[in-house]
From TrEMBL:
Signal sequence, start to end: none
Protein's UniProt name: Phosphatidic acid phosphatase type 2/haloperoxidase domain-containing protein
Keyword Translocase annotated: no
Segments forming domain Phosphatidic acid phosphatase type 2/haloperoxidase: 31-139
Alphabetized UniProt keyword annotations: Membrane, Transmembrane, Transmembrane helix
Record flagged with keyword Acyltransferase: no
Pfam families linked: PAP2
Domain of life (superkingdom): Bacteria
PANTHER family xref list: AT30094P, SPHINGOSINE-1-PHOSPHATE PHOSPHOHYDROLASE
Transmembrane segments: 6-25, 97-114, 126-146, 158-176, 208-227, 239-260, 266-284
């Protein structure tokens, strides 16, 4: 059960799930979820690089981990993102039952990381706390910020979309560069290798992808201060084709990055740019492609939604 819950709470599962929501179900809920997920995961990576805290099995040989994890432990990303993603869905549905399910999933995913030996109780509590703060902030400030955003001219909205993410990305890169093998005990690296990893991850690549996607996604909202309208998918077949079409486009930037990695060491700024293109495609290119390919349902077009819905 712990393995299943942990897998459900992984970044890849959340990303695909929220893309399906955005493209096929509710652009408003999907936009909220994608923005908050990228913000949460990127801040989590930054916090881990600052805290440089070990995972339980790195310091206690008696713990047999249920997974090999190379990132630092504080705070728990699974716990943090679970609160954010499931909380956004409950917020969008606006029902007590949805909030109950969100609480159960967040608690279960957090517990799974403790059961697998990859997070301490304190790290999980910290993740839940940060996730709750982000969710509460989004619920309180999304609508006022969206109104404030729409008052600016296009060039200013583009700057507001890209610059904050780029600055935080630069801060993350600096935090990663300050780390070295002397920053933490060699026993941590040995524990990671025994579990099948290559040593504690000190790169900023994961955060670069998140900050880049967030910058591109918000930039895609800038021209109209809203995504292009998405009409109903018109059945599961059109919905599935939308998802396949949308996700397939991600293969190009991924392939470019893999080629770059094979030719040289990973280059975080390049990953930021490629991820920004993926975010821009998500919010702007994919809906246009759906229309061109006839992947529309022919029903009434959904209202153009802003990040606040």
């Amino acid at each position: 059960m712990a393995q299943i819950l942990s897998a459900i709470g992984s970044m890849g599962v959340y990303l695909v799930f929220l893309l399906v929501v955005y493209w096929c179900v509710s652009p408003s809920a999907g936009a909220r979820g994608l923005v908050l997920l990228m913000l949460s995961s990127s801040l989590n990576e930054l916090a881990k690089l600052w805290a440089v805290a070990p995972r339980p099995y790195w310091t206690d040989p008696s713990i047999v981990p249920g997974a090999s994890v190379t990132s630092f432990g504080m705070p728990s990303g699974h716990a943090q993102n679970a609160v954010v993603v499931w909380g956004v869905l409950a917020w969008s549905l606006g029902r007590r039952a949805a909030w109950a399910v969100a609480a159960v999933m967040a608690l279960g995913i957090g517990w799974s990381r403790y059961a697998l030996g990859v997070h301490s109780v304190g790290q999980i509590l910290a993740g839940w706390g940060i996730g709750l703060a982000l969710l509460a902030g989004a619920m309180a400030w999304t609508e006022p910020l969206a109104r404030w955003w729409r008052r600016w001219p296009l060039q200013d909205r583009l700057a507001l979309a890209v610059l904050p993410s780029f600055v935080l990305f630069a801060v993350t890169v600096l935090a990663a560069r300050n780390l070295s093998d002397e920053t933490f005990p060699w026993t941590w690296a040995e524990a990671v290798r025994r579990a099948g990893g290559e040593g504690p991850r000190t790169s900023s690549d994961a955060a670069a992808a998140g900050w880049g996607f967030l910058a591109g996604f918000l930039a895609g909202l800038a021209p109209r201060a809203a995504p292009p309208p998405l009409d109903p998918a018109g059945g599961w077949r059109r919905g599935a084709l939308r998802v396949l079409t949308g996700v397939a486009a991600f293969c190009l930037p991924a392939a470019v990055y893999l080629v770059m990695v094979s030719l040289a060491s990973p280059f975080a700024p390049a990953l930021f740019v490629l991820s920004a293109l993926a975010g821009l495609w998500t919010v702007w290119g994919a809906p246009k492609a759906f229309e061109r390919l006839g992947l529309t349902g022919g029903g009434p077009v959904s209202p153009r939604v802003h990040p606040d819905g």
